[in-house]
Amino acid sequence: MSKPTVDRMLAGFKSFKAMYYEQRPERVEDLVNMGQKPEVLLIACSDSRVDPAILTNAEPGEMFVVRNVANLVPPYEPDENYHGTSAAIEFAVRDLKVKDIVILGHSGCGGMEALVEHGEAGKVPERDFIGEWVSMAKCCLHHGPDVDEVSRHSICNSLDNLMTFPFIKDRIDAGDLHLHGWWYGMKEGILWQYDSAKGEFVQGL
Ligand SMILES: [Zn+2]
């Protein structure tokens, strides 16, 4: 009988510890003593199949990551509500001064399916939060009903929403911050990249 996942995760931590604390202790010392200085903010879906660090082979300290349902960026709305994604974006851009922001979407996204099915109503039956959350991208619904197509357009919508944050627009205008839209086709193992000049996703890697 195979071990429960949490047991394998604990064994995985032992492997991680051996790789960094025993084989590359200087890397850990740098991260502890110098603090984090990631150059990239990556906004990805919470989907268990699209872990950004695994997909990009990133090392500790390289990416500041926000994950939420359907990798969505809300518009700039400084009010009394709880804005977890916006708070992370603010910290990454204003304090960590990342140089690039990547929005990473993917095929077969459950959050995007919820958007296509219930986004217009803004309410998923018997759920308290999902419908309202994904409805922020309902302007993309006219690209449907293909979920993957809506998913790609929602990345463009999130890129537009990033530009509504004044501290992001200022740094982009100054030329020291760059935005990227990536979309991972899981079945084929292809990473599509948004080409803003063409206004479409082009096959990358
Ligand atoms: Zn997803």
Name the CATH superfamily classification of the largest domain. Answer: Carbonic anhydrase
Mean pLDDT: 96
Q: What Rg do the Cα atoms give? A: 18 Å
Give the end-to-end Cα distance, rounded to a whole number of Å: 38 Å
Q: How many domains, in number, for the residues?
A: 2
Overall helicity:
40-55%
- In the sheet with the most strands, the strands line up as 2-1-3-4-5-6
CATH hierarchy, class of the largest domain: Alpha Beta
Beta-strand residue percentage = 15-25%
| Number of β-strand runs | 6
- Which shape, going by the Cα principal axes? globular
* Largest sheet geometry: 6 strands, mixed
Low-confidence stretches: none
Which architecture of the largest domain does the CATH hierarchy give at level 2? Answer: 3-Layer(aba) Sandwich
Q: What small molecules are bound in this structure?
A: zinc ion
Molecular structure report:
It is built from 8 helices and 6 strands. The relative contact order is 0.13. The chain has a 6-stranded mixed β-sheet, covered by helices on one side. It has 2 domains: 35 residues, no CATH class; 168 residues, Beta-carbonic Anhydrase, Chain A. By secondary structure, the protein is α/β, with parallel strands linked by helices. It is globular, with a radius of gyration of 18 Å. Zinc ion (ZN) binds next to helix 5.
